[in-house]
Design brief:
130 residues, alpha+beta, eight-stranded antiparallel beta barrel, Lipocalin
């Protein structure tokens, strides 16, 4: 009887370990509740620049491109947690960091432009998915 009980306990422990392996928290926050895949237009950066983000999402990971109205462009790695998108567009002179809330086809939040290690511009933006 002890042998059967010991086997049952071992089996339960192994099963619990296997089940919990898929439950690790990666520290990335909550699961995405939105999908940011698409072309986001009308993103206004300051008084003189607008931008387009073309994004693709897989799980919570986001990748894409950033193109500003003056032709400046770069890549955009990012992530989604809940309904929040966070991404950083890297280009030759610096970066633009986005932190936005997404609701259906609207993305709105804040941005910050860094060039030469310093923040040169920041503000709020709204973009629409087309």
């Amino acid at each position: 009887m002890q042998n059967t009980s010991a086997r049952l306990i071992v089996a339960l422990l192994v099963g619990a370990t296997i089940a919990l392996t898929g439950c690790e928290d990666d520290g990335g926050g909550s699961s995405p509740t939105v999908d940011v895949t698409g072309i986001w237009r009308g993103i206004t950066l300051g008084a003189s620049h607008s931008a387009t983000l073309t994004l693709s999402q897989s799980g919570s990971s986001v990748s894409g491109t950033f193109v500003r109205n003056d032709g400046l462009s770069g890549t955009v790695p990012g992530s989604v947690s809940g309904n929040t998108f966070v991404g950083t567009a890297s280009y030759s002179a610096g970066t633009v960091t986005f932190d936005a809330t997404v609701s259906q086809n609207t993305m709105s939040g804040s941005y910050s432009v860094r060039e030469g290690g310093s923040v040169v511009e920041s503000g709020t933006f709204t973009g629409t998915r087309s």
